[in-house]
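Colleagues,

Please find the record for the two-part complex below.
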Amino acid sequence: MSLPGLPVPLSPDSPDRPGLPDRKQDEVRRMLAGPYPRVPPDLAARAAERGRRLLARRTLLRRLGWLLALCALVALFVLVTHRPWLPPPTHTTPPVEGW
Amino acid sequence: MRERRPAQERRRAREFESFVAGAGGRLLSAAALLTGEPAARPAPAAEELLLRALSRTYAAWDRLGGDDPYERTRRELAARFARTARRHRRPRGGPLARLSPRERLVLVLRLYEDVPEELAAAQLGLPAARVHDLCLHAVAELRSRRRPEPPPAPAPSPKSSAP
């Protein structure tokens, strides 16, 4: 029934097996295909406004992320150059021993 | 680059508006089926759902890259509905009001939007067999609700109705 090159569809609602499920599903399809509800005239404008706010928030978050990364980099640089974990240089001469 | 931004925004707004003008009715109808609201009256829950899905489509508009905005919005709609399904359990009088939110989602994707079973399963994170079962169950449920009893033919002779 199916062409040799084509994969055989497995779902029962495929056109290859027009059967009971297909007819039932068509009936439900007709049930679902009622009239469309009225679309509010300002829906697109409201959605666009919301979308712009979403974009602005994402941009802000991205910038904050970059700022944070920059701060981390600066902190790392300062730590590496100043090495605060080393003891501070001593200003007194150590006692001389052994002579 | 910075001077071009308002022009780009205007173009995006224009394209988006014509997209909503064309597809808004069908999308709102699908959303109303999902939330279980009747199409004849205003459907606030469906409008809210669609508004959120559309705003995400708008935010992704420049990065759609050949993707169909209708499919994108439908995906957002389905994902958002799946996340907030608990809010839509209460029947609201629509044609699918008696079904569970998940059955409604599967039915709308499969029969209203004609999404292939595998794709619907992938979008919902369910096995394809489960989607198939849910769809069959929802169809059976709807048909049984619609015609609770097949009208018995008037049997003139009791002999013919005996097994």
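Chain A has two helices and no strands.

Comments are welcome before we finalize the supplementary table.
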